[in-house]
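User: Batch of two.

Assistant: Item 1 of 2:
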Amino acid sequence: VREPIPLRVHHLPIAVTFGFFGDGELV
């Protein structure tokens, strides 16, 4: 039984933060 949920949830906030702040929101 694979559970890639915790891994994704753990990397989700990082990806979202880098996506929002790295896309040009902070700039």
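Item 2 of 2:
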Amino acid sequence: MFITNNGVGHAFISISQGNNTMTFGFYPKLGAPYNYTGPSVFNNDSGHPYTYAWNAGTITPTQLQQIIGITIAFSESDYQLLLNNCSDFATYALMIAGVNCDTSGIDTPNTVASLIENMAQSSNSNAAQTQRNCP
């Protein structure tokens, strides 16, 4: 889990399985700042700078399938700056990884930062590069 909480901020995740690593986050498909509501897309966040990073460790196959499931669900939903954004996606991933999260309000990158700040293993660096052997 990665979070950048300076400026606008961004929350995104990285998952590694064997030699494959995917680093990605949820965005408005048509870009910001002009698209606050509309189609969504997941983008490759390889090398994205972050303020805090937390490694959830090994997750179970069930947890991986649940993260894949929420990724599919978010990809089929509209991006909404206030109620369905990168922080909402990251918060759901954190819940699947076992972090107690309250999803009842408006989530921002600062919301996610407050959840992982005390658990962070690194800060002020760049996210892992996406590497994969499959298409």
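Residues 2-126 form one domain.
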